[in-house]
Amino acid sequence: MVFINRKVNLSLLILAFFFVAGCASNNTIPPSPTKLEFKLGSFDEFSGSVSYRTNDEFDKVVYVNDKAVLTASHIESVDYTASQFLPGAYDVVMELDDVGTKILAEITTNHLGQVMALIINEQVVLAATIYNPIMYGQFIISGIESLDKEKAKKLKKKIRRAMKSAD
Fold this sequence. Notes:
167 residues; Gyrase A, domain 2; 6-stranded antiparallel beta sheet; 9 strands
């Protein structure tokens, strides 16, 4: 019995050593997976909808379908750039893969006037009305005055984390 306890204690000691050594060598515990979804919805409640409060300066309630129309698995790249229309603001640009491009074209063509929400880890990052079909697979988050360089950089990192989680 004493032999078993020593063996267990030794195993725990070795495990603790590798954990501490890993942290000391700048290896950190990886963050939990990031879930990114695009969902259709409305600013008005409808049957079967799930409500979220937007996490922006507009602080609205958006009601969305439970099913995602696009996920992070369809995003090929993401970057941010200075806005051409709002001085001091930034845009976040996402490029979709071929499947995502087709889905986005179909969704934005068939759901003009509806809302599409970008949801990351169950928080609405953006909810925007679809005014035109998006045919070329490039998704641009723009027109938000409070999206400065730091916020755009953080959003880019969240989206990249979601892309890695989707792999």
